[in-house]
Amino acid sequence: MKNSGDIMEEFIDPAAGGGRNSEEDNNHVPELPGEDFLRLSSSRRDFLKAFGFSFASAALIAGCKIPVRKAVPYVNQPPEFSPGESVYYATSFYDGHEYSDILVKTRDGRPVKLEGNPLSGFNGEGTTARVQASVLNLYDDARLKSPALDRENVSWEAVDERIIADLARINSEGGEIVLLTSTIISPSTIRLINEFGAGFRNFRWVQYDAISYSAVLEANSLCFGKRVIPDYNFDRTDLVLSVNADFLGTWVAPVHFIPKYIARRKLNNGERSMLRHIHYEAGMSITGSNADLRRKLRPSEEKIMLTDLYNRIAVNSGAETLPGPAFREDLSGLAESLMACRGRSIVVSGTNKVEIQIIVNGINHLLGNYPDCIDPGRHLAIAAGIDSKTEALVNDMNDGKIRALLMYNVNPVYDYPEADKFLNGLSRTELTINMAVALNETAGRAKYECPVHHYLESWNDAEIIPGQVSLCQPAIHPLFSTRSFQESLLKWSGNPVTWHDYMRSYWEREYFPGSGQSSFRNFWNTSLGKGVHTCPVKAENMPPFDRTAFRKVSESRDLPSPDNYEVIIYESIGMGTGIYANNPWLMELPDPLTRHCWENVACLSPSDAAGLGVVNGHLLKIGDGLLLPAFIQPGQAEGTISVAAGYGHTGSGPVADGKGVNLYPFAKIKGGSRSYGFTVSRVENTLRESPLALTQTHSSMEGRPIVKETFLSRYRENPASGNNLHGASDLHDKTLYPEVKYDGFHWGIAIDLNACVGCNACVIACQAENNIPVVGKDEVRLRRIMHWIRIDRYYSESSDNPRVYFQPLMCQHCDNAPCENVCPVSATNHSSEGLNQMTYNRCVGTKYCLNNCPYKVRRFNWYRYTDNRSFDFNTASDLGKMVLNPDVTVRERGVVEKCSFCVQRIQEKKLRAKLENRTLNDGEIKTACMQACPSGAIVFGNLNDKNSRVSRLFSDPRQYFLLEELHTLPSVGFLTKVWNDEDIKS
Amino acid sequence: MRKSCSRKYSPGLSALTFSSLVFIFSAGFSHPASADLPPDAPGKQELQSEDSVKSISGSVIQASEELIRGQRLFYGLVYPDNKAMNCAACHNTAVTDTLNWNPDAVEISGKYKNKSVDDLTEILLSPTGKKMAQVHRDFRFTPEEIMLIKGYMDELAGTGLTQRKPPVTNLVLFITAFFLFFVSAVDLIITKKIKKRWINPVVLSIATVYITWSLVVNAIDLGRSPGYSPDQPVKFSHQIHAEQNGTDCIYCHNYAPYSKSAGIPAQNICMNCHLLVRSGTRSGMFEIAKVTGSYEEKRPIEWIRVHNVPDHVFFSHAQHVGAGGIDCAECHGDVAKMVRIRQVSDLSMGWCIKCHRTRKVNFSGNNFYSQYHELSDKLRKGVTDSITPERVGGTECMKCHY
After folding, report:
1. Out of 2.40.40.20, 3.40.50.1980, 1.10.530.10, 3.20.20.70, which CATH number does the structure's domain A562-689 have?
2. How confident is the model at residue B48, as a pLDDT?
3. Distance between alpha carbon B128 and the CA centroid of its chain, in Å?
């Protein structure tokens, strides 16, 4: 790597440089939905007609009556509500795959926005894109709305009566009853399930995760006798070696890991050292992008590499070595570095193979990383599914051993690798019940459909880390005729108690005695108010490492064949396991690395692409049955193809269906665990084109200091290193305009590029807060995506294995804004608080401002996205509109819009301060992006207040402005990205 | 829809569309034989159209004849010498501008729809209410007539009040001007029939000025509705509550000081008093019974919103009442004198800005403003004596539009 922070060596972006594709994109003639008259060529006659028409319409419009609006108050005003004010409820989010403690913002009784719960010991104020978007799933028209028997809607009473009778009959005949659920982390539900099961002679409870962590669980069970996923304390480490574990993006609990990881990567408080991060992976992940050193590794090499590393450390520590060949690279440097950080390092692998996880455990054990850095005692209850148990269940179903199958929050027809086998088993099961929130591939396959509440409508609790319990409370009355899963279990087991009372009494028994509160009522209300409760757990001793686990590790013989392509199925940031596929916000969320949306693509390395003659968007035939558009991904390991899971739905709703390809059927069940990858011998370029919906087509900074960078050693010498051009242009730039002084407030944002990991939570948070429309794949292809904040991704150095930079970019609110000067109607102008204002009702849509904005952050509303059947995402229906933030205008067609620094939040907090007769506190106003950011990379505040956090960051020597040579005087400042020096020999 | 109140009867051409014009003509020509009924008698058209559909059955014809007889009874046409026996005289069947404390015809019909004829007989011939007993004193209806009235009322309950016909003068003027413009232009360019050469240019210019003026005036007026005072579902009088009884605005509109919305009181607020107060001096029991009745049925009252601002306007009562300390009457007028609530200010942007430029901010009295160091300095040094909202950004776009 060229050690220069100022001018970066660039490469031609193969994605954009393909030429043909992008040219064709530019020439693409837009389809105008439903507005044919715009396409007509106009003549003088047409002009006169239009003129006459407009005259007539003016007369008509003048005669129109304003619609009568109703104002309907409550009959009994609930005391906690005041119309027009937000009420926040603490609750917790768990979808079977991801967990967060959250606050629900409700307006007039409907949840409109989710925020992290600052009291949470798990995620703090941070959230992820999926958590942010989950509020939209509440208003999804594809939700199951009523119980059904054989796809006919019936009443709950009818369903209950028949199910109770069926269960009793099967039980009396001694038939096996199975409850198949996603992972359950609710302690009271676990108790309930056990009680439910105790009522039957032959009962089995199987937990099933679409994306499985079974190998981690089993490896820990073998090594330490505890079937858990340990907590990884990145904040206590000096060196992290991650092999294929995307722990900042998707692996286990990113929202929990990011703050810890970033705590050791930030340099704002005079820190002199940073956590070093070495990453081995095949496809590009955001974790790999953040690593100081990223190496490419094919999945088949992983075991060899880890065995070799283990052996080197074992030799040094005098432990027994494992049989296996040496890795193609010399790992002695890596081993040395790890050994130098004994007890202060973490080695993780994201591969769902027990033997690999055992080797990783072995390495961590030799390095003494337990329990300080990796703590099995404080484990994360994020997943509990054991693959072999699911496999056994599916086999038993096929053998006709299962008489009743109750499914809750699972979609095995879509995401189980052998879905056909599962379906076959399902048809052989006498009583089948499906309990799901929304339509999916499994819904309708069971005899009984018992839809459950969305989590924002239900009572629940959770214990994500031992001792950290949280409550989940309804924030809205159930919208449809649904019932919580627990309520159903209580009904079917003949228990007359309601689920709410059941849970309450559980809390009274379990948590109240140790709480020190005087009455349970008090305890319950405080816990509900806070959402979280910490109860003491007895400290456990670290169990000894059981070396016999290594017996499970077979000798590596399967050397990768260089001719084969290895396909990796990965979890994407937006789609996750696929349960959010019908969520238009997430569907249109660009992947952080590829920057495409609306489908999944086959990422392959530039050299493979050259070999196949592929450019972006060529349809690839992978193996026999898989047809996917190609995407050339710099940094992809040669001979590998990465494809995201979660797409290719066939029955999950209009947004999800038919977008991309479902990769789960290609996953393999091998040796008792599911393996998310397969090998193909042939990849063929069909030469057919399938244009991609890319939101960023250029990847190079073209030598300009857009993301400034430096190295830790240089930073230590001079904190301003890499930032030496900052302020240089101010010396010779003069402006004709008078310098503006802001009295009172001057709002600004500081973005620490060292902290931003590129997770995209801010993008969805902004979308939810500011009523940003979803435009659909075709419009995205025309570069008409509406996001107010985007995370630009740049590559530098080589396309082979580039360095990756993420840069969140919203309106820079320039004090010398180029957009303001060119607006002919002054629809965009400057406020006395430094905001670049956008006035929609004044805008006539000339788009001059868009063209004059050097940051390209302004968006034009090409269509009326609300009430428009052509854009049937969420604003076309009354149900979907319930998610809209009433404090933000829904923009009309023909106006320009852009980031407002969440002015509605600024105004709200200013007003509160006025009403309370006090000054505004620093940090009181949080923009949506800042609030959602799990790493705290975005800081908003008053630049006029010299003690505010943002002012302090603005005076940091690392601070610079984007394109500051243009003298736009932005209000958004960036902080130089600092990398660790590459002193790891490899 | 029980009541449909159009928001606007502006004197311009605004009140009419071409379709309404067509309606007037068609209404005028299709019912020439309507001498025996008041011209705005409702239900007539429905009767006829139903007739044409169902006339196959004789009983239906008979039923419709009964309806007409009921209608005639209701309008007091059967007993023209007994003025009291005209239901429609008190219980209006059309939307009116005048104050009428009696429940309208559709309301009473709705109330008795699901009740028996005996109930109606009771209220007609021997009412318990004081005022009603006085008015209904001279009623002499036979049981058969009451049956017919009941039949007509049931029919009425399904329809709404007849809409008032909008004034047409300005539209006629506009169309005339347009017609003159057209004729004059044609004559000037093509036919050249008018000998006096000055006539056409004068007519053209006058017509142009008038057309432009009325378009501009109406365009500015578009979306504004000062004076808007629709009939509300309950004949609630601010005059009785605020003036006679001296209730403070904030007692009912209790969110005004701290929330964006002032809040229309929920019925539980009404019930604080109306749990006991069940009869009004002028409205009798009918109006209060609407509130108490729907409270018991847990049915909210659907008030017609009077003060509306467009969606892209953010207005906060908390800012103006809570922080600004502005009296309600400054924007809403003397509500205590209004029997039916009426929009006083035009709620236009110019009206907002005028205040923001001239009023004074409580600058030294609120700690919040101490953050404006420069302005505080000026105020302290006496360079300026007061701060208008404009000087702290009160006229900027994104203070109200976002």
Report:
1. 2.40.40.20
2. 39
3. 31
Query: What is the distance between the alpha carbons of residues A321 and A362, in angstroms, rounded to a whole number?
Result: 11
Angle among Cα A464, A466, A469 to the nearest 5 degrees reads: 55
Rounded-to-integer distance, Cα B390 and Cα B402, Å: 18
Give CA torsion, residues A700, A702, A706, A707, to 10 deg: 50
Which residues in chain A have Cβ-Cβ distances shorter than 8 Å to B4?
68
pLDDT at A59: 52
Rounded CA separation B258/B269 (Å): 18
pLDDT of residue B167: 62
Q: What is the pLDDT of residues A738-790, one digit of tens each?
A: 778 899 999 999 999 999 999 999 999 999 999 999 999 999 999 999 999 99
Nearest residue of A to residue B264 by CA position? Answer: A73
> Which residue in chain A is spatially nearest to B217 when comparing CA positions?
A62
A48 at the B interface (CB within 8 A)? no
Q: Which of residues 294-333 of A touch B (CB under 8 A)?
A: none
Q: What class has domain A214-380?
A: alpha beta
Question: B311 to chain A: which residues are within 8 Å by CB?
Answer: 889-890
Cα separation, A401 vs B123, whole angstroms: 73
Domain boundaries, chain A: 214-380, 562-689
Whether residue A865 is predicted with pLDDT greater than 70 in this model: the reply is: yes
Confidence category of residue A985, pLDDT binned at 50, 70, 90: very low
DSSP A456-496: GGS-EEEEEETTEEEEE--SS--SSS---HHHHHHHHTT--
Count of CB contacts below 8 A, A vs B?
A: 186
Instruction: Write down the domain spans for chain B.
Output: 34-158, 169-221, 238-347, 360-402
Phi, psi for A143 (deg, rounded to 5): -70, 150
Inform me whether the C-beta atom of residue A904 falls under 8 Å from chain B C-beta atoms.
Answer: yes
DSSP state letters, A798-811 = -SSS-EEEEEEE--
Task: Name the minimum distance, in Å, from the CA of B57 to any CA of chain A.
Answer: 40
Report mean pLDDT in 10-residue bins for chain B, 402 residues.
39 36 34 35 39 47 79 82 77 76 83 83 79 78 85 82 69 87 88 83 90 86 83 89 92 91 90 88 83 92 91 92 92 92 91 93 91 92 91 92 90
Backbone angles phi, psi at A676, to 5 degrees: -90, 65
